[in-house]
Each structure stands twice: as C-alpha cells, then as structure tokens.
Amino acid sequence: MFDELVQNPILEVKDLSVHFYSKTREVKALDNIFISLEKGKVLGIAGESGSGKSTLAKAIFRILPYNARILKGQIIYKGTNLINVNENDLQKKIRWKSIAYVPQVSMNSLDPVYRVKSQMLETIFAHEDVSKAEALERIENVIKDVGLPSEILDKFPHELSGGQKQRVMIAMSMLLNPEMLIADEPTTALDVVIQAQIIAMIKKIQKEKNLSMIFITHDLSLLAQISDIMAIMYAGKIVEVGKVEDIYYSPLHPYTQLLIKSIPSIKNRKKKLISIPGEVPDLSDPPQGCRFNPRCPLAQEICRKESPELTRVNGSHYVACFMVGGQ
Ligand SMILES: Nc1ncnc2c1ncn2[C@@H]1O[C@H](COP(=O)(O)OP(=O)(O)OP(=O)(O)O)[C@@H](O)[C@H]1O
User: Fold this and answer.
1) Is residue 187 part of a domain?
2) Could you tell me the residue range of the domain that residue 70 belongs to?
C-alpha cells in the first residue's frame, strides 16, 4: 500500500477493523485501517479525541479490552501476523522485549508501594535471566538516557514530579532493549515546557537506539516536530498519510486542512484560528459514505454514498477523499 513512502517496514497494519460491543451498541472504532512503519523512523498518528488512535495502539500491542473484537485485517510485525500469535508467545517474545508501549495514563501506572529500582529489577527479571549486577547496570544506563539522576532509583513514585514519573515510564519501556516503541500521548498531562523537554528526550533516544516508533497525539504541531511520516485519523479511518512536509505544510484532505487551521501557532501568533464545524460522529452509527461528509465543506453526493479509499495522489502522499486527486 505505501510502497512509495516506506521501503523497509518493520510493521504493517493491513485492512484492520475493530469493533467494541456492549449490550446495546456496536462501536465501529477502527475501519479498514492501513499503516506502515519504516524501520528506525517515527510514524506520527494524529486525530481528534475518539478517532481511534488508542484503539489502534492497543490492537498492535494486543491488549484490547475484553469487549473488543478484531473483525478482519493483519498486523504484520517483522513478517509475523501478530493477530495469530498466542498470548504466551506474545508475553515471552513480543511485548516489552521487542515492542514496548508507553500508554496514555502511564504516569499513574507505577506501583506506589515499591521504589523505582525494585520495579525496574522486577521488569527485567520477569523477562530475562540475567545477574543482578547486569540488571542494575542496565537500569543505571536507561535512567541516564532519560535524563534523570540515579538517586531517583531509590525513590517511591509519590516522591517524583509528573515529568519525572513519565521519564521513569519511558526508561522502563527501554529496559529490555525493544526495537519498536508505541508512545500514546506520552506528554499530555504535563505542562508545555516539560512536554517539550520530554519530546526532545524521546527523539534523542529514538535516534540513538534507531528505534522504530509510533507516536500518537492529538497535537499536530508537536507531531510534526517528532515524526518522519504522519497519518491523520478521523472517526476510525485513516484519511491522509505522507511525509511531514506534505501533511503539515501541504495537506490535501479537507479534515487535515481544518485540523491544522484549528491549532494555535507559537511562531505565528496572529494566525486566525478556525474551529472545525460540527462534532465527531457517534461511532455506533457513523455517517454513511465518507465519515467526514457531514462536516466537510467540499462534500458532494458521492461522499454521502460511498466511502473513499486511501489512494496515492502524488509522489508519496496518500489521501482518502473523492474531491482530491480525481478518485
Ligand atoms: N472499551 C470500550 N468500549 C466501548 N467503546 C470504546 C472502548 N474504548 C474505546 N471506545 C470507543 O472507541 C472509539 C475510539 O476510541 P479511542 O480511545 O481509540 O480514541 P482516541 O483517538 O484514542 O481518543 P483520545 O484522544 O480521547 O484518547 C471512541 O468512540 C470510544 O468511545
């Protein structure tokens, strides 16, 4: 699908659909999702709240909640379809060792009754048979990598600031030397200065370790700073994919254009902000045709009837819109 954009993929999600079920509703959270992550690069995924970003991250890491069902699709990681891997093998070979995950509320996922060092030792020993001296050396290294002093290791989580906790979570995710990292809104709860520092630190680690990374946020300007390739999600669909310069500076999909116009710019304070009209649809009853059609300034008859496929428009820029690129 993304041959012109990604030459050496470590991960390919193909035609993935995930629904959530309750007694009364079926939420169509992901619909025919295609993404591809180049080895050693950053794929940034953006979209408004409820567009399905976290569901996609959880599907890849195979930690969807019990009421979710993968209806179809493939998640190909280094040649293996993760959907067919059993829980035991996922635990032993994939999760943390190969793919690490820093979830959205991770700042609160440290155990309050153990010091940082004990939690890190436990993580290593749960997966690898190494000596305590070797484990401690590894811990010292990752703590240094995330810019924290080693005294942090003897503290309890409540003794740390929000930014320090998040750095510890990122250090934890690096303990088993993964090849790939999924970071889901890792800085959302932090103030902007700390956010910027943590983003810079993540990018430095990504480069140094040649990590392949999926970075998720609703903040497009932040995403443009950290990503090589960007994918825009809307209501459970990928609507646009391309290099950062194409998506951020020359967006083609009407949704991406509105999303960019709706974010404030630090560089251009006089920029006129536009809010996207209407609301994100209820995914238990998404609009027929293109899911963006009720809010789209360009919508025509076809957009209300048929769902546009992601199509290469020029060079390595992919868009799902009937009004762009002569679909
Ligand atoms: N466990 C669940 N049961 C039912 N519906 C769910 C569940 N988890 C998520 N959803 C629904 O799936 C859709 C996608 O949610 P998701 O959390 O993936 O979006 P998101 O883009 O990550 O949003 P945010 O930025 O707010 O985290 C939403 O309509 C949400 O209400």
Assistant:
1) yes
2) 9-98+178-319
Whether residue 271 is predicted with pLDDT greater than 70 in this model: the reply is: no
For ligand 1, whether the C-beta of 54 sits within 6 Å is yes
Interface confidence (ipTM) of the complex: 0.97
For residue 233, give the ligand 1 atom closest to its CA.
21
Residue 111 inside a domain? The answer is no
With a 6 A CB cut-off, is 51 part of the ligand 1 pocket? yes
- Give the residue-averaged pLDDT of 296-325: 93
Question: Counting atoms of ligand 1 from 1, which one is nearest the CA of 56?
Answer: 18
Residue 47 in domain: yes
In the predicted structure, residue 142 carries a pLDDT above the cut 60? yes
C-alpha 29 – ligand 1 centre gap (Å): 7
Domain count, the chain: 1
- Please name the residue ranges forming H helices in the chain: 53-61, 87-89, 116-127, 132-145, 162-174, 192-208, 220-226, 244, 254-261, 301-305
13 lines ligand 1 (CB under 6 A): no
Q: What angle do CA 292, 1, 286 make, to 5 degrees?
A: 20
User: In ligand 1, which atom is closest to the CA atom of 282?
Assistant: 29
Secondary structure letter of residue 95 according to DSSP:
B
Cβ 284 under 6 angstroms from ligand 1:
no
- Atom 12 (ligand 1) nearest CA: 29
Tell me the pTM. Answer: 0.93
Indicate whether 265 pLDDT > 80. Answer: no
CATH code of the domain in which 269 resides: 3.40.50.300
Q: Cα 96 from chain centroid? A: 16
230-262 pLDDT tens trace: 999 999 999 999 999 999 999 999 999 999 888
Task: Indicate whether 244 belongs to any domain.
Answer: yes
